[in-house]
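Tip: read the tokens left to right.
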């Protein structure tokens, strides 16, 4: 069993929210503006599980990459939380900093056009997926430039994580309904997290500025997956992982 700093990460409005646990210590929360800044704040052997796609396809098949297609079947009514990742070319079709809403939508249209030419069947990009493109590129660039991070930074997915921690049963209630946090769904997840070692007062605290309550819970469950990774208990979907053309592993771990 490996004793290491374990960190769960989720994207948030302010950048990235982390839930970190050092050996023998209670968890702590932080927010970082960039993923590089987040990594710089950690020991070099820390294990990170992040709710963000890692490893990008050159051509997108029906259902997305292999990991998405595999985990959807586990999640029942929660499978809509797993959306397909378009091609690398679509992800990098427009890397501008958008100053207007019109520019943002125009960039979304360009990305969709590229995605349609690099997928079978041709498929555009959802607004939800496009909204996290910059964060996907942020991690992608780091893993290309720093290959040593590939054995420390792992992709996971909150609903897959909750399912694995719940004896392979998906959560029965949605975390959000029509974009708003669903208190009953949050309560269901908090109860499960408490069964895996969290203290309720920690989970009930107000998240830091720039992070939402569901971002905080997602980072919290990601931390448990980082712990499973450190102990060799996590499982990749698929097993063994695939790899993109840069050699970056492609798998959802839980």
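Filled-in amino acids:
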């Amino acid at each position: 069993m490996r004793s290491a700093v374990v960190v769960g990460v989720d994207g948030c409005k302010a950048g990235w929210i982390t839930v970190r646990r050092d050996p023998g210590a209670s968890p702590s929360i932080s927010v970082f503006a960039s993923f590089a800044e987040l990594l710089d704040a950690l020991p070099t052997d820390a294990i990170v599980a992040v709710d963000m796609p890692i490893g990008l396809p050159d051509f997108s098949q029906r259902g997305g990459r292999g990991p998405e297609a595999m985990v959807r079947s586990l999640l029942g009514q929660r499978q809509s939380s797993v959306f397909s990742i378009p091609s690398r070319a679509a992800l990098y079709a427009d890397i501008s900093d958008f100053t207007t809403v019109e520019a943002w939508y125009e960039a979304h249209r360009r990305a969709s056009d590229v995605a349609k030419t690099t997928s079978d069947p041709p498929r555009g990009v959802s607004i939800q997926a496009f909204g996290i493109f910059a964060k996907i590129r942020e991690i992608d660039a780091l893993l290309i430039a720093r290959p040593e991070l590939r054995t420390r930074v792992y992709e996971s997915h909150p609903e897959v994580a909750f399912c694995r921690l719940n004896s392979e049963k998906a959560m029965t209630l949605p975390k959000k309904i029509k974009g708003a946090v669903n208190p009953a769904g949050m309560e269901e997840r908090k109860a499960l997290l408490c069964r895996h070692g969290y203290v309720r007062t920690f989970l009930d605290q107000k998240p830091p500025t720039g992070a939402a309550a569901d971002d905080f819970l997602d980072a919290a469950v990601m931390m448990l997956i980082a712990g499973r990774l450190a102990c060799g208990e996590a499982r990749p979907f698929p097993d063994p992982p695939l790899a993109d053309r840069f050699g970056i592993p492609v798998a959802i771990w839980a």
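The mean pLDDT is 94. The longest strand covers residues 236-243.
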